[in-house]
Amino acid sequence: MSEKIPFVGLHAHDGFSVGDGLGYPHEHFDFACENGLEAHAITNHGNMNSLPHMVMHVEKMRAEGKDFKAIYGMEAYFVPSIAEWKEEYTKYRESKKSSKKEEISATVIENEGETRKAKNILNRRRHLVLLAQNQQGLNNLFKIVSLSYQSGNFYRYPRVDYEILEKYNDGIISTSACLGGVYAGCYWENREQGEEAVLQAMREASEKMISIFGDRWYGEVQWNNIPEQHELNQYVIKICDEYGIELVSTCDSHYPRPEAWRDRELYKRISWLGKKKPEWLSDELPESVDEIGYELYPKNGNQMWDSYKKYSAAVGIDYDDDLILGSITRTHDIAMNRIEDFTPDNTVRLPEFVVPDGSSSADEALRDLCLEGLKEKGLDNQSYLQRLNKELEVIEHRGFAKYFLTMKAVSDKAQQLSLVGPGRGSAAGALISYALNITQVDPIKYELLFERFLTRDGKGYPDIDYDVANPMRLKEHLIEEWGGTTVVPISNFNTLKLRSLIKDISKLYDIPFTEVNAVTSKMLLEATPLAKKKHGIKAGVYAPTFEEVMEFSDSLRKFLARYPKVKTHVEALHGSVRSVSRHAGGVVIGEDLDYHMPLINSGGVTQTPWSEGQTVRHLEPMGFIK
Prior knowledge:
Blueprint: H1 25-34, E1 39-45, H2 51-63, E2 69-78, H3 82-96, H4 112-117, E3 126-132, H5 135-148, E4 154-155, E5 157-158, H6 162-167, E6 172-175, H7 182-190, H8 195-213, E7 217-222, H9 227-243, E8 247-250, H10 261-271, H11 289-292, H12 301-315, H13 321-338, H14 362-376, H15 382-398, H16 401-417, H17 431-435, H18 471-482, E9 487-495, H19 498-508, H20 513-520, H21 523-534, H22 546-552, H23 554-562, H24 564-573, E10 577-589, H25 593-596, E11 600-602, E12 605-607
Parallel strand pairs: 1-2, 6-7, 7-8
Antiparallel strand pairs: 2-3, 3-6, 4-5, 9-10, 11-12
Helix pairs in contact: 1-2, 7-8, 8-9, 10-24, 12-13, 14-15, 14-16, 16-18, 19-20, 19-24, 21-22, 23-24
């Protein structure tokens, strides 16, 4: 087709669909924009961990004059009834007499073969695409994700059901997803009983989804050379016609550029190293994308049309061209007319309960507590009061009173439970910190400057380093007293590091371990001195960057020249998400955090979906203070 066909990808994954998708949101958005798209969704498996990346990159694109829209969503793991699923789960554990603790991990690796054909009800789950139409819908999505990770809803994968969707569907559009989706489940579970059994199951699912979403429920068709996909497409078309449900075509993209297909195939295999590899995942890497049977980059409308024509011809099935063209263009209408162009609310969220009863405001409460603290220390004299007023003026101007009240509440609890440090870093220069007993250092006595800590025209929130002898005990106590959706530990995202990545890739290409180890054991020793010299660093510890190791390690350069495929994969995969862990001490404190961020869970501990540290700052830009 020669004219431009409008289209927007409403079903897509990036590297936060660990082991399945590849690349960061900025790579997907940049290519989508280059490829003529006006918007793009990210719908990762069971999480919304990449949302801050999306928000910040779209802001950057718009600052560069690119009119591009981010669509926030996720692909949930769905079962009709969690209550029924729990009952089966309990029976199973009793029958096995298992004492093994329930497995809860924030790192969920999609097993697409099991999703489609799982016989065991414990492993059974169906994909469901959910897209936020507005801020209300986004908050509901956050709540849905948070609920799905609760221990009673989790067994290897987070789950949602009709009951959750009925409560939190406002502002959300939903589609039936892929070969692992809701309609696909009806197909896989009933195909042996014949067409009418499949259609009847689809009718029941359709009626339930329509009762929840109304015209926000869409049937989804996809285009590849998998025969079962086309069988499913025909069932979806038939049931949507019967119920008046509108169709959408999706690409279900998983990598940011067409040429990245091989990197994604290798990344999938790396993700299963050391685990029980699924039967559908072969050891051999495909030689061409045609062997796989699908292309999963962010396509434009004309590429979607070409895929439809190519793959429908390959499997010998005729479709109604007008119907399919409509399903492609409808995605653009949904993206532009049914989904608002909005930036997620990043209002700073600190708890209200830290403001004492009887205080008219956080500023008044902070002033009263500071004055009381100085009086207790016998320091309520003119010089200290002048310094206090100066600091309070800055804090009131910056709107930080509630932050200090929160820190005082934490500090008071810490001192009841454990030894605490006297104060560290620039926060020790604040008389307010001393008056509130957050620090034990008198900044006037030791001539410490408040301006090193905070200034009137500065940016960002203060960062008080607070040392506690037993931080885990303190966190557990705060969570127990204030609640698991009020005090939430901060996540860290572990990425593919150079040394282990070279080893993993080489293993998949059958390169001898001794040869690989000879390189990885000395590449940093070779690169570090030269990298330090480049920067004029004569002493101290320095960790060379990925690029510097590639540049300065002679052994690595020769190895990669001998194995160019390894070099290509290393450059593509280095820094990709491998797993989720937890920050040693950092927490976010706020009220109803499960409604304001999509909380995840690891090892039974609820934690943030976003991180904050030296290399990434995603909590504060979204309104959450570490």
